[in-house]
Design a protein that fits this description.
It contains 9 helices and 9 strands. It has helices at about 1-10, 40-45, 55-70, 120-130, 145-155, 170-180, 200-205, 210-225, 225-230; strands at about 15-25, 50, 75-80, 100-105, 110-115, 130-135, 140, 155-165, 185-190. The radius of gyration is 17 Å and the shape is globular. The protein has one domain: Rossmann fold, CATH 3.40.50.920. Strands 4-6-5-8-9 form a 5-stranded mixed β-sheet, with helices on both faces. A 4-stranded mixed β-sheet has the order 1-3-2-7, covered by helices on one side. Helix content is about 35%, strand content about 20%. The chain is α/β, with parallel strands linked by helices.
């Protein structure tokens, strides 16, 4: 499968969709493996023009529909297990490629940029911290316009993804801002570069610090450093 992802699939000159249940593990299947969870990392520099991460059941359907409309290879990465229970719309519609969705406008100066299944986890956190919450939707292409605007209108940015931090989507955001000469405090949250023990999906997320409680604790601890939290 890695060879197909890295060699054959990106070079396809015809419409092709790779739908991968790569976010997390089936219940009791096993822990996160650093290699398994680098799926986003190797795809970033390769050809697929679209690499999508749905936040819920309905968005997953719409992203798969979007992918098959593209004239080239596209990847849709979604988690195993159950979704948050969002009602599924009957009609299908193509999403604008490379455009993020602002879920909440905050006033604290903190922006949370979440990918895929991490978006629902961050909703309550954003409410409690009065933070802006963005459903990034696309790892590639990134919504550069929205990212740059958020970085210039907020004091700090947190990226959250169910993928290893090294070489992941958060790193891509950091690279973008560095290339534009924008200096803003960044916190990247994702799967740590270590093996996670076997367990259910919920247990694996908890051990990786990616469950709602772990995410909130990490964000609050970082955000409440006086230099960042003070106006």
């Amino acid at each position: 499968m890695p060879s197909q992802t890295l060699r054959g699939f990106p070079g396809a000159s015809f419409p092709a969709v790779r739908a991968a249940a790569g976010g997390g593990r089936r219940p009791a299947q096993g822990g996160f493996h650093p290699f398994d969870e680098r799926y986003q990392a190797p795809v970033r520099p390769l050809r697929p023009p679209s690499h999508e991460g749905p936040a819920d059941e309905d968005e997953c359907r719409q992203m798969l529909y979007t992918a098959v409309q593209l004239n080239g290879p596209a990847a849709v990465r979604y988690p195993r297990g159950q979704g948050p229970g969002v009602p599924v719309k009957r009609e299908m519609q193509s999403l604008p490629v490379g455009k993020a969705q602002i879920r909440r406008e905050g006033h604290s100066g903190l922006a949370i940029l979440a990918f895929g299944a991490m978006v629902p986890f961050c909703e309550c956190i954003a409410e409690r911290l009065d933070a802006t919450l963005v459903n990034m939707r696309f790892v590639k292409p990134l919504d550069e316009e929205t990212i740059v605007k958020l970085a210039t209108t907020h004091r700090s940015i947190v990226t959250v993804e169910e993928n290893v931090v090294a070489g992941g989507a958060g790193s891509a955001i950091g690279e973008l801002l560095a290339s534009r000469g924008i200096n803003v405090p960044l916190l990247h949250l994702g799967i740590p570069d270590r093996f996670i023990e076997h367990g259910s999906r919920e247990d694996c997320l908890r051990m990786a610090g990616l469950d709602p409680a772990g995410l909130e604790a990490a964000i609050v601890r970082w955000w409440h450093v006086p230099a960042r939290a003070v106006s």
